Amino acid sequence: MPFPPTDRARRVPALAAVVLFTLSVSACAAPEPAATSPAGAATHSQGPALPSAHIHGLAVDPDTGQVLLATHDGLFDATKRPAAKIGGTNDLMGFTPGKEQGVFYASGHPGEGSSLPNPLGLIRSRDGGKTWELLSRQGESDFHALTSTKSGIVAYDGTLRVSPDGKAWTSVKAAFAPAVLAGHPDSDTVLATTGDGLQRSIDGGATWTLNSAAPVIQFAGFASPGEAAGVEPDGTVHVSADGGATWTRTGRVDGGVQAMSVVKGQKWKPWIWAATDSGIVVSTDGGATFRPADAD
């Protein structure tokens, strides 16, 4: 069963799902802003404006507080007002940070005026998205779901694939099409969200098990190797303290989520950032409350 369609899903019907990914970040926390919504309430306030109608990914640097948006129109620094373009214009359908500072992996299609191949295959930036190098599968793969793990890269282009270095790939037999792949660069636990339930791997994506007890999560991300958060299609938020094995409902985010990112906060209360139809919102209490990300 596919998730309810969004603009991105309608643009890519072959995936039969919203193919938005989440991004894993390191386990440090940024200075904490105050949440303003009552406990368990959805956010109705508008957050910072989005630079594109097509948000494919969101990443937050826990050390600097920089908020990056991977979009149909390129990569943007949403910390600036207005959001500032980083590098060229490419349709970054897949996007995930690597383990090292400033390293990102991406996939998608070249933008107007770009000399990059179509589709992009897997590309890598070592300078925060300003420039990109070609790694593999240029002209072959448009990875809509993409994440990094301790063992390497897990990606989906119609076939689930794993790679130790982003260059040599092994196909994985999987009877599901992931909307989101969520991992952490210090762990080999990977979550794959599907309309039929949450798939979980503990070996870097090589084998998978359906977690039938988990909620049907559409977006997921890791704050640390063991701490994860997930959002259902209706915005209901859940957190996990054991790498996605079990989940606890905490609250709800309103506004039609397009992408999310999770960073380490207080114990079992990760910070959850979400790009919604009305802007960027953040929770600093594990999803119990949300507020516009630029609120004082």
What does this protein look like?
This protein has 296 residues and is an all-beta fold. The chain has one domain (7-31, 51-292): Methylamine Dehydrogenase, Chain H. The protein has one helix at residues 7-11; strands at residues 22-24, 55-60, 67-71, 74-77, 84-86, 90-97, 104-110, 122-125, 133-136, 145-148, 153-156, 160-163, 170-172, 180-182, 190-194, 197-201, 209-211, 219-222, 228-231, 236-240, 248-252, 257-266, 269-276, 279-283, 291-292. A 5-stranded mixed β-sheet has the order 1-22-23-24-25, with no helix packed on it. The chain starts with 6 loop residues before the first helix and ends with a strand.
Radius of gyration over alpha carbons?
A: 17 Å
Name of the CATH architecture: 7 Propeller
- Strands side by side in the biggest sheet: 1-22-23-24-25
Which term fits the overall shape? globular
Low-confidence stretches: 7-44
Top-tier CATH class: Mainly Beta
Element order, helices and strands? HEEEEEEEEEEEEEEEEEEEEEEEEE
Oligomer: single chain
User: By CATH's scheme, which homologous superfamily applies?
Assistant: YVTN repeat-like/Quinoprotein amine dehydrogenase
Structural class: mainly beta
Number of helices: 1
CATH topology name, in short, is: Methylamine Dehydrogenase, Chain H
Could you give the count of β-strands?
25
